[in-house]
Design goal:
This protein has about 90 residues and is mainly α. The chain contains 6 helices and no strands. The protein is globular, with a radius of gyration of 13 Å.
Length: about 90
Amino acid sequence: MAIHFSDFKAAYPEFAAAPNDQVAAKLVAAQTFCDPGIWGNRYETAVFLKAAHMLSMSPSGEKMRLAKGSEQTVYSVQFQDLLTALPARTMAT
């Protein structure tokens, strides 16, 4: 499944000002955390949330963290919720 840069920017307009090369790099990096065979039709959402979290953890994204100095973002919470919602059988493979 292809991940489209423009779809990410449309889904997460709060990153509109982020440099395109930084967003593209985080989208590539996020894909290494998300196996399409496990995530199924939630793959794009998982990649987008992981990339958004990674962008939020960069020095310029500090204002997007849930608490100052925290490593938790709204995106990491949503990613974890999505992960928890996966059927248990997908996690066993």
